[in-house]
Amino acid sequence: MATPAAAGAPGAPAPVRPRKSVTGTRRTVAALFLLPALVLLGALVVYPIGYSVVRSFYDQSGDGFAGVDNYKALFTDDGIRTALKNNVIWVVFAPTVATALGLIFAVLTERVRWGTAFKLVVFMPMAISMLAAGIIFRLVYDQDPDKGVANAVWVGVHDTFAESSAFPKAHPGRDSPLRAQDGGFVTEAAVHTGTPVALPLVGVAPDRMPGGAAKAVRARPEKDKVTGTAWQDFTRGKGVGTLGAPDPSELGYAGMRIEAVKDGEVVASTKAADDGTFALPAAADGAVLRLPASNFKEPYNGLDWLGPSLVTPAIIGSYIWMWAGFAMVLIAAGLAGIPRELLEAARVDGANEWQVFRRVTVPLLAPVLAVVAVTLMINVLKVFDLVFIIAPGSSQDDANVLALELYRKGFSEDQPGIASAIAVFLLLLVIPVMWFNVRRLRREVRR
Predict the structure, then answer these.
(1) Mean pLDDT across the stretch 383-403?
(2) For the chain, what is the HEC assignment?
(3) Mean pLDDT across the stretch 97-120?
(4) Separation CA 306–CA 56 (nearest Å)
(5) N or C: more exposed end of the chain, with fewer CB within 10 A?
(6) What is the pLDDT of residues 279-305, one digit of tens each?
(7) Which domains does the chain carry?
C-alpha cells in the first residue's frame, strides 16, 4: 500500500485538480452563468434559423414537401430578382460612399478647432431610429417644392438659370379676341397702328400675379405704333366690372411677352409693362398678335425623387446621412492611433498633403476602413425600414430589397415557404462577410 510520502515521490502522477479558465473561474461556474444567455440564444437565434431552414423546403400550406422549388423562385420571381438587383446596388454603393465620407470628415476635422462640434452634428443622425429617419426623408423627398426640401433647393437652383412663367393657368375668357394656337394664344384679326388692342385673360389667382403688377390701364392710341393692354379681366367678389375693358381693381400682366406675326414670321416683339400696356413698332401693322407658349408653361416642379428611376438612389442617400457619422467616428479613432512621426517624416521628405493622405494615411487606416466597410455591408444586406417607409406604394416594387420582399411574401402574400427561403438566402449572403470581419478582427488582436 502506497504511503502519502510515496505519493509525492518523484515520478508519481500529480493529483487531478478541477480545471479553471484563464480568469481563474471554474468552468462549471462559468457555464452556469452563461446558461441563461445560451437559452435565450437558442430560443431567439438558433431555433428560428433551424425552423426557417426546414420551412423553406415546404409549400404554402406547410404540409407538402416542395423540395428546392422555393429556392428556384428566388431566381425566377420578378419581384425577388428586382430585390436582389437592388441589394447588389446597396452593397456596392452605400458602404463605399459612407466610408469615403467618413474618411474625409475624419481627416478634415482634425485640422479645425470646431472639429468636435462638427463630429457631433454628423454623428447625431445615429441617435434617430430608422423609422423616424424614413419619415423625415419621406418629407424631404416630397414632390411639392413647398414641402420637400430636396425639390425646394433643386427648383431654386433651376429657376436661377431658367426663369419660370408667372401665368401658367392664364387663358382667354368669354368673348375674347384670342384663340388657342401651339400652346399660346393669337388674335383672331390683324391689328393696326392707331387702334389700341385689348388682350384680356383670366385664370391667374390674385396672389399668384407677379409682384410688380400694377393696376391695368387702357392703352393710348399712337399713329406709328400698335398699342394695347394685356390684363387679368376678372373682378373678385360680386363687384361690378366690365368685360373686355380694364377695371380699377384689375391688374396688368407685367412681363407678358407679345409678338407680332406676319406670314408665320415674328416681325416685332415686346413685353408688357407693369400696368399691362405694350407698344409695338409700325412693322407690326397688319400682323396678328401672339402670346407665345413660354408665357404659360407650367413652373418647374423639380425631380420625382421617389419615382421609379430615382427612388433607390434617394433611399441610399438617406442611409448615408445616417451612417456616415458612424464611419467617421471609427475612422477618427483609427486616425488618432497613427504615429505622427510617420506623417511628419513624409512631409520632411517632400510629400505634399495629398501624397501624405494617399500613400501614408490611407494605407495605415486600411484595417479600420475594411472593418467599417464590411460592417456596413452586413447592415445594408438586411436594410428594411428605410425602404418600407420612404418608397411610396407606386414605386415600392422598384425600390424593393430582399428584407422587404421577405416581409411581403411572408405577410402580404401568405407564402411562408418562399419567405423562409429568402431568409436562408440572406443568411448565406451575410455569413461570408461576417466571417471575413471576424477573421480580420482576430488578426488585429494577435498583433
Answers:
(1) 92
(2) CCCHHHHCCCCCCCCCCCCECCCCCEHHHHHHHHHHHHHHHHHHHHHHHHHHHHHCCECCCCCCECCCHHHHHHHHCHHHHHHHHHHHHHHHHHHHHHHHHHHHHHHHHCCCCCHHHHHHHHHHHHHCCHHHHHHHHHHHCCCCCCCCHHHHHHHHHHHHHCCCCCCCCCECCCCCCEEEECCEEEECCCCCCCCCEEEEEECCCHHHCCCCCCECCCCCCECCEEEEEEEECCCCCCCCCCCCCCCCCCEECCCCEEEEEECCEEEEEEECCCCCEEEECHHHCCCEEEECHHHCCCCCCCCCCCCCCCHHHHHHHHHHHHHHHHHHHHHHHHHHCCCHHHHHHHHHCCCCHHHHHHHHHHHHHHHHHHHHHHHHHHHHHCCCHHHHHHCCCCCCCCCCCHHHHHHHHHHHCCCHHHHHHHHHHHHHHHHHHHHHHHHHHHHHHHC
(3) 89
(4) 33
(5) N
(6) 999 999 999 999 998 888 877 888 899
(7) 69-153+305-446 (1.10.3720.10), 178-295 (no CATH)
Q: Give the integer Cα–Cα distance in Å for 222 and 75.
A: 78
What whole-number percentage of the chain has pLDDT above 90?
42
Radius of gyration from C-alpha coordinates of the chain: 37
Q: Which three cell numbers stand for residue 282?
A: 409700325
pTM across the whole model: 0.75
